[in-house]
Write a structure and sequence with these properties.
There is one protein chain. By secondary structure, the chain is an alpha/beta fold. It contains three helices and four strands, in the order E-E-H-E-H-H-E. A four-stranded mixed β-sheet has the order 2-1-3-4. The protein is elongated. The protein starts with 7 loop residues before the first strand and ends in a 10-residue tail after the last strand.
Length: 103
Amino acid sequence: PIVGTLDQIMYAFAYIDESNRLTTVEQRDLDFYQQVLAYKKDNPNLKVLISVGGHGNGQSATFSRMASSSSSRQTFIRSCISYMKNMDSMALIWTGSIPAALI
């Protein structure tokens, strides 16, 4: 199968919820994550990444809110650590304005 020839799979997307925590886009994503992670059994060198955000999905304001304070960033970081069990990395897709406090 093709999975043996892949270096990485980027799963798109996860979102940031109103509590500044990482969450699924759809409930069935949890099942899909497990299916993708199971490919690592056949290809131990495979890296699985989760993509957060994305262009045109209304997450720009959510990213700005999450990034606006130390406590909201800390909440987000802790949720990422928990959410990403068995995943190798994350890509943050933040399109839009950056809060002045971060510049």
